[in-house]
Amino acid sequence: MFEQLGFETLTPGEAAIGLGLALGLLFGALAEVTRFCLRRAVAGTEGERREARGVWLLALAVAIVGVQAAVAAGWIGFDGHRFLAADLPWLAILTGGALFGAGMVLTRGCVSRLTVLSGTGNLRAVLVLLVFAAVAHATLKGVLAPVRTALGSVTLPLGEGASLAGLPGGAMLWAGLLAVVALGVALRSGASARNMVLAAGIGLLAVAGWVGTGYVLYDDFDPIAMESLSFTSPSAETLFWVVASTSIPAGFGTGLVGGVVAGALMMSLIGGRFRWQSFESPAQTGRYLAGAALMGMGGVLAGGCTLGAGLSGVPMLSVAAMLALAAIVAGARLTAMGLGELTRPISGSAGSPARPAALPAE
């Protein structure tokens, strides 16, 4: 379709950077206002969990309906996508998801949330993203690549079962069931009407990413990768584009990351929420760096982060994406429970019970 749009000075690759930037600006703005983050939905306080769960699941429901509607219309298709590979690398996905979930609890935010926080003056988030991107790149192409290769070699043949669309009932039945369940839980969460409306907008951004790169910018003579909202590979690409832009071209992901930071910065300044924040102790610094490394390796092994595997991957009806999301949630819950045990007062002690150190606000 790209050749029909009349762009004479832009290639599809250059247009993809602009698309990523536009989607990133919108996502950064919406996510900053709603505090969109799966970590809050899984391991936050009780009040945080209800609100964040409603926002996240409503966005997911909208993304599922929108993506499958685009597939049904013939605009896009996911044949050959890594999330729909016939052989499921289950060990890598489970290990990576658990590592990512643990890491996002240690850093108090998933990668998308930390990218947003980077635009609001949070220097903790900036450092976490740098370490995350470096470790992700090392897992993709560096010293940690043998670990990825070894774990990824353990597979389970699924054939057509790699997608729920291959099961009895077809894509529309399973997409409808997933969307109804997600929507039902979201509507019962008690999340504010404003945040629910904005969450629907976030879900539409995931749809726009797939349709934009897979249909609007499609060109037989100059093909580009079909992508949507994701932060694992884009973060690594952005880091290395910044330090070596003359040899590493920018792409959709680079525009996306830059747009998210800019959008969050804009909304935090408008709302008076911009605050310079940094680490409060060496122990806190160590915890955040450990979490960043876990997310960097985990995101690559799992095939994506909470957005790449979750908000963008699940609407594909991919079994791999659903398994990755479940492993991330399980890893986050177990880590949160473990941290709670470590900070719980010892019963029967002679002294006053120790009070856990307050964690910094997101």
Strand order of the largest sheet: 1-2
Q: Based on the structure, what is the oligomeric state of the protein chains?
A: single chain
3D shape = globular
Sketch the topology as an H/E string, one letter per element.
HHHEHHHHEHHHHHHH
- What value does the Rg take, in angstroms? 20 Å
Strand content: under 5%
Task: Characterise the protein shown here.
The chain has about 350 residues and is mainly alpha-helical. It is built from 14 helices and two strands. It has a two-stranded antiparallel ribbon with strand order 1-2. α4 packs across α14 and α5 crosses α6.
Q: What key phrases describe this protein's structure?
A:
two-stranded antiparallel ribbon, mainly alpha, 1% strand, 362 residues, globular
Write the layout of secondary structure elements.
Blueprint: H1 12-34, H2 38-43, H3 46-72, E1 87-88, H4 90-106, H5 111-118, H6 123-141, H7 145-152, E2 156-157, H8 170-187, H9 193-216, H10 232-243, H11 252-270, H12 282-302, H13 306-311, H14 319-343
Antiparallel strand pairs: 1-2
Summarize the structure.
It is built from 14 helices and two strands; from the N terminus they run H-H-H-E-H-H-H-H-E-H-H-H-H-H-H-H. The protein is an all-alpha fold and 362 residues long. Strands 1-2 form a two-stranded antiparallel sheet.
